[in-house]
Amino acid sequence: MNAMIPVAGDELPAHPGPSSFRPAEPERMHLRQLLGIVLQRAPLGLAVATVIFVLVLGLFALQTPAYTAVGSVVIDPKQQNLTDTSFQQGGLPPDTSAVDTQVEILRSPALAQDVVKRLRLYNDPEFNPAMEPRFFGAIPGQEPINQPDARTLAKVTNNMMARTWARRAGLTYVVQVGVSAASPQKAALITNTILETYLSRQLDEKVVAVTRANTQLGASLEKMRQEAESAEARVQQYKNANGLLSAEGATMAEQEVSTLNQQVAISKADHAEKAARLAAALAQLRNGSGGADVGAALGSDTVKELRKKEAETSIRLAQLKADFKPEYPEVLRTQAQLDDIRSQIQAEINRILSSMRAESSAAAGREASLTGSRGAAQGGLASNSRAQVGLLAIQQRSDAAKQIYEAYLNRAKQVAAEGSLQESDAKISSPATLPTSPSSPNMKIAGVLALLGALIAGAGAMLMAEFWDKQLRSRADVERDLGVPFAGVLPDFRSIQPKGLRGLEATPAEFLLNHPYSGFAEAFRNLRAFLMISARRDDARLFAITSAVPREGKSLTSLCLARTLALSGARVALVDCDLRQRGVSKLVGDRDIGIVEVVENGVPVREALIHDPKTNLFILPASGKSVPHDLFSDPRTDAVLRSLANQFDYVILDTPPILGVADARILAAKADLVLYIVQWNKTPLRAAQSAVEILHDCGANVAGALLTKVDVKGQARYGYGDSSDYYGYFKNYYIAAA
What we know:
By secondary structure, the protein is α/β, with parallel strands linked by helices. Helices cover about 55% and strands about 10% of the residues. It folds into four domains: about 40-65 and about 445-465, no CATH class; about 65-205 and about 425-430, EIF_2_alpha (Alpha-Beta Plaits); about 250-410; about 475-735, P-loop containing nucleotide triphosphate hydrolases (Rossmann fold, 3-Layer(aba) Sandwich). It has helices at about 30-40, 40-60, 95-105, 110-120, 150-160, 185-240, 250-285, 295-300, 300-325, 330-420, 445-470, 475-480, 495, 510-515, 520-535, 555-565, 585-590, 595-600, 605-610, 635-645, 660-670, 685-695, 710-720; strands at about 65-75, 165-170, 175-180, 245, 250, 425-430, 485-490, 540-545, 570-575, 610, 615-620, 650-655, 675-680, 700-710. A hairpin with a 5-residue loop joins strand 2 and strand 3.
C-alpha cells in the first residue's frame, strides 16, 4: 500500500497514458462556432472596422471636389457613299454598329485634341500641371497662350480624355457625353464644345465628300452618255438590217403569228362544235326518230309552233272519232289537217339538218385556211428568231449603258442639290448645363465602400486573431492539438454564481462545501471520477496539478479537488509546492511553518499541517519566509512526500507552471498522475503544446488536460459538444442551496 516515492538521481520510468485514448477527429466548423468567434472577438473587430471606416471616409473627403456636366446628341447614322448609285435619298436605316461607331468617334483622341486646341486647355493647370497654379479654376480659353509642342498637346489631350466619358443610353440612338472639371462652368463649357466640335467635324467631312463626288461624277458622266448613245445606235442598225420591225415591244412576225394562233384555235373549236352537233343529229335520224328529237329542231320557234298546232289538231281528231264514225266528213277533214301539219314539221327538220351540214363544212374550210396562213407566218417568225439571238446581246449592252448613264445623271443632280443642303447625321438633343453639386467625391458611395471595407477588415481581423494564436475551447481541441485525454471542464465560478451570495459564501471553495449539489460541485466530482478511472494502480496516490502559464486556476482547482476527495470520505493532503506564488496558502491563510521548514529545519509534518475543519483535508502550506534553491531535488523532500503518501489516501501537489519553473518538472516526474490545467479560450496553443512536450520529456504520467474557467454561456455559443454546452439542460439537477 505504500507509494514508491522516487528520489533524486533515481531512474524514472515512463508513465504511459491510458491505452484506450485516441485523439479526436478534426471537427467541422459550424455556424454557432463562427458566431461564437464573432462574439468573442467583437471588440477587436469593431475597433478595426471603425478605423477602416473613418480612414476610407477621410480619404474620400480629402479629395478635391469635381463637377460633371452631361450633354447628349441624337445619332441618325447614314453611311453614305456619295458615288454609290444605289444610294437612296432617305439613307440606310440606323443600326447598332453605326451608333456604336459614333460613340467611339466621340471618344477619339482626334476629337479631344480639337477641343483642347479650340479651348486652349494647355494653359489650364488642371489639364496641364506644368502651368502655374494662378490659372487654376479659371474658365479655359480666356488667358493668353502660346502654341504647345506635340508632347504637351498629347499629355493635355490624355488628361482631358481621362475626365471625359461617352456612352450610349440603353439601346436608343442617344449618346451621352460627360466631362468632369474643378468648376461647374468649365465642365459645362468643355462638354458643349465636344458636342459642337463633333457636329462640326461631321459636317466638314460631308462637304469634302460632296465636293469630291461632284468632281468624280462630272468626269465620268460625259463618257457614259456617249457610250449609251453608241450602244443604242448599234441596236437600231441591227434591227433594220434583219427586218426586226416591232410595235409595242414585239416584232411584226410575232404579232401576226400570235393573232393567227388565236384565230386557228377559235376556228377549231367552232368546227368541232358544229361537227359534233351534226353527228348527233344524224345519229338520231338513224335511230328512226325522224329528227324530231334533234336539239336544233327542238329549239326552233317554227317547229315549236307546228308542234303546238299538231297537238291541238290531234286532240280535236280524237274527240271527233269518239263522237263520229271514221267516214264522217269532219273527221276526214281534221285527219287531213293533221297530216299536213306533220309534213310541215318534217320539212322544217330537214331544212335544219341541211343548214347544220352547210355550217360544218364552212367551219372546216375556214380552219384549213387559217392553218395555212399560220404556217406561212411561222416561217417568217423562225427567220426573225434567228436574228433575235444576235440582237439580245447588243440590246443588253445598250440597256446597261443607258441604266448606268441614267443612274449617274440622277446622282449628279442629287449631289449638286446636296452641296448646299448638307446636315450632320446627329443633332444636340440636350446641351450641358451647369451642375449644381459635385459629382465626386460621392459620399454615399464612399459610405457604402467604407462600410464594406470596415466589415471585411473587421471580419478579417477577427479571423486572423482567432487562428493566428489559437486557444483551446473543446474536447476535440484538447485531444487533437495536445494529444492527451480530456479530463473535463470546470465552469468559471462567476458564470454560474447564483445572485445574492455575500461574504465568504461567495468564494468558490466555500460554495463547493455549502452547495454540494450545484453544477460547480458536480464538475469537481466528474474530475474526481476521471482521476479514479485514470489511476490504474491501487497505490497511485500522489497527484500533481500543473499548468503551462500562471493564473489558469491551478491553485483553486487543487483546493476544490482536494475538498471533493475529502468529502467522499478519503483522507487527503494538499501540498502547496508553488513556493513563489503560494496560491493555496493564500486561499487558506498564510502560515509561518510550511513545507520549507519541514524539509530544511526538520519541523514535524503534523505541526505544519493545517486541518480543514469542514472536511477530512489537511493542507501543508508554503510559508512566505524564504524560497530555497532546488528544494524539490532534495532527498528530504522525497521522504516528506513518502511520509504523506503513507498517512493519507491521496496527496495532491499544487505545483508551479511547467514552462517557467523547474520545480514543476521535478514534481511531475515524482507524481503517480499529473493533471494538466489549461484555461479555456485563454492559454495559447503553442504554450500548451510546449508544456505537454516537457511533461512527456520528464517521463510524467499525464492523466489528462482539464479546461478551467469555462464561461458556460460562451462555450455554448461556440457550439462545442462538451458537457458545458448542455449545462442549461441540467439546471434542474443542480441545487444551489444545500
